[in-house]
C-alpha cells in the first residue's frame, strides 16, 4: 500500500518570504500522480498543484512550485512571496495510475502553515 | 474548476437517529464519488468509494451498515449515518471525479455532524 508522509506538522513564514513544505511517499508503482491540496479555515479542499510522475519537469502554478524527486520519492512544495491568504493546512496526496486502484487519493498528515505579517 | 455541492454544511442530531448528507456534482457527471471523514487537525480518511449504479466499496474498518452510501445518479451520492452516536461526530467531506482519465477530484464544502 502507498503511504504519504509529511514530517512537518507546523510551519511558519513571514509575509513575502518563501517557505518549503516537505512530503515523501512510498510506492512500488511507476505510474502515479501527486498533489498538494490546501485546506483553509473554511475546510474547503482546494487543489494547489499536481504533478504527473512521468513528467520530469517540476510543476509550477504562479507562486507555487514543486520539487519532484522521483528516485528519492520526494515531493516538496515551495510557496514564494507568501501571502496572508496562504495560511492553511496543506496536504500532500498520492494517486495511483492503475485503474484497479479506484483512483483514490492517499493523503499525508498535513502541515499547518502560519503566515506572519 | 467543477463544482461539488455538499449539503447540509452543519447538522445536529440526537443519538439513535439517522442523518443523510448529500453530495452533488453541479456541472459535470461524477462517475466516482468518495466519502472522507476528518477529525480536528487531522488528515482525511477515506471511508468509501462509490461508482454510479453499483455498490460502494468500503475501506477496512468502516461499518457499511452504519454508513450507508448510495450513488443512484451521475450527479448525486448520499451518505446516511444510521443510529448515530456521539462518536460519529466529525467532519465529513465528499469528492467527485468525472472519469478515471480525469486526474482531478473536486471536493464538497464538507458537513460538520454533531451527535448529541
Give the structure's gist in a few sentences.
Chain A has 117 residues and is mainly β. Chain A contains no helices and twelve strands. Chain B is globular.
Structure commentary:
- The complex is a heterodimer of chains A (117) and B (116).
- With 117 residues, chain A is mainly β.
- Helices cover 0% and strands 52% of the residues of chain A.
- Chain A is built from no helices and twelve strands.
- In chain A, the strands form three sheets. In chain A, strands 2, 5, 6, 10, 11 and 12 form a six-stranded mixed beta sheet that branches. Chain A has a four-stranded antiparallel beta sheet with strand order 3-9-8-7, with no helix packed on it. Chain A has a two-stranded antiparallel ribbon with strand order 1-4.
- The model of chain A has no long low-confidence stretch (mean pLDDT 94).
- By secondary structure, chain B is an all-beta fold.
- Chain B has no helices and eleven strands.
- Helices cover 0% and strands 52% of the residues of chain B.
- Classes of the chains: A mainly beta (117), B mainly beta (116).
- Chain A binds chain B through residues 33, 42-47, 50, 52, 89, 91, 95, 99, 102-110, 112, and chain B through 1, 32, 34, 38, 41-44, 46, 49, 57, 91, 93, 95, 97, 100, 103-105, 107, 109-110.
Please count the helical segments of chain B.
0
Mean pLDDT of chain A: 94
Distance between the termini of chain A: 41 Å
Shape of chain A: globular
Uncertain regions of chain B: pLDDT < 50 for 5+ in a row? none
DSSP, total strands of chain B = 11
* Low-pLDDT windows of residues of chain A: none
Q: Determine the fraction of residues in helical runs of chain B and give it as a percent range.
A: under 10%
The SSE order of chain B reads: EEEEEEEEEEE
Number of helices of chain A: 0
**What structural class is derived from the secondary structure elements of chain B?**
mainly beta
Rounded to an integer, what's the Rg of chain A over CA atoms?
14 Å
Distance between the termini of chain B: 36 Å
What average pLDDT do the residues of chain B reach? Answer: 92
* β-strand amount of chain B: over 45%
Strand % of chain A is: over 45%
Number of strands of chain A: 12
Radius of gyration of chain B: 13 Å
| SSE-based structural type of chain A | mainly beta
